[in-house]
Amino acid sequence: MALVRQRRLALTLDLPVADPASDRRRLLPPLPPPPATSSSSSSSSATDDRISDFEKLSVLGNGNGGTVYKVRHRRTLALYALKLPSASSHSASLRRELELHLRASPHPYILPLLSPIPSPSGDHAFLLELMDLGSLDSLLRRHGPLPEPALASIARRLLLGLAHLHSLQIVHRDIKPANILVNSAGEVKIADFGAGRLLRRSLDTCLSYIGTCAYMSPERFQPAAHGYDGFAGDVWSLGLTVLELRLGRFPLLGEGERADWAALVCAICLGDGTPAEMDGYDASEELKSFVGRCLERDAAKRWTVTELLSHPFVERSDSDECDRVFRELVRTES
């Protein structure tokens, strides 16, 4: 990081629009229909429900887009998650989030939107499946670094979820441990489409700071230097998430280093080598290779989700055993 600090003054955050017309990631083949999910929250007919029909039990999370509550339906007693938009939320953003949710569901690795519910502000609240163990971020804080077999199981499911989104031309733009939810059945689902974007045209781009700075890819800050690709940005965030779950801490900054904006941008855009080469990174060569393919700073060289699905780390002969290890891990958290 010493070299990073010396080079901070040379950093410029130019945001020209790159021409993605020839990008091979733009045209992904459609995926076959996903199998039905193995479990989900009780599905009451919530279509005609109002927010007042749900009793707030606890706060599950807060963000710029609103607050997510654990709620209980007053009549059926079924448990859900309910996302209420914040007063500062823009109607256009909420409509976009709703559209992405509806397009992406159903899929076993995407958190389903069960119903939009009119809110007092005139916009819609989102009634969502309740994932009873919370996020991977909270799991990491409770359990510490995750074992590699469990991590391989998680990575494979997230790649399948991202492959589904990308085949629909949806870019998530905020993949991180806090936006990946788990339940006691051992399911893993991508959540929160508040920063997402639907690429309707070949020249659509996602050059903005919407999302979480720490998990943004280099091209989100310097597209001219690193090449730009919205789908590749999701892959970078996935690789950083996997590495964090293995290390037990955010990997791009040193122990105790303050995560201010300047330090993060410099670590992302100017850091030397990949996080897989950090001191104390105890992992197999397969995992290091997987993370390295995700954290390639040149977006054009970064592997796609389709390529990563055939990587030895996730295409393991013991994939059933990896799933079992992950299920055992979450069972201890139940």
TrEMBL record:
Reactions catalysed, as given in the entry: L-seryl-[protein] + ATP = O-phospho-L-seryl-[protein] + ADP + H(+); L-threonyl-[protein] + ATP = O-phospho-L-threonyl-[protein] + ADP + H(+); L-tyrosyl-[protein] + ATP = O-phospho-L-tyrosyl-[protein] + ADP + H(+)
Superkingdom, natural source: Eukaryota
Keyword vocabulary terms for this entry: ATP-binding, Kinase, Nucleotide-binding, Serine/threonine-protein kinase, Transferase
EC number(s) per entry: 2.7.12.2
Biased composition annotated in UniProt, kind: Low complexity: 37-46
Keyword Cell membrane attached: no
Stored InterPro entries: Kinase-like_dom_sf, Prot_kinase_dom, Protein_kinase_ATP_BS, Ser/Thr_kinase_AS
Family, per entry: Belongs to the protein kinase superfamily. STE Ser/Thr protein kinase family. MAP kinase kinase subfamily.
Annotated protein name in UniProt: mitogen-activated protein kinase kinase
Organism per entry: Dioscorea cayennensis subsp. rotundata (White Guinea yam)
Taxonomic classification: Eukaryota, Viridiplantae, Streptophyta, Embryophyta, Tracheophyta
Gene (UniProt): LOC120281797
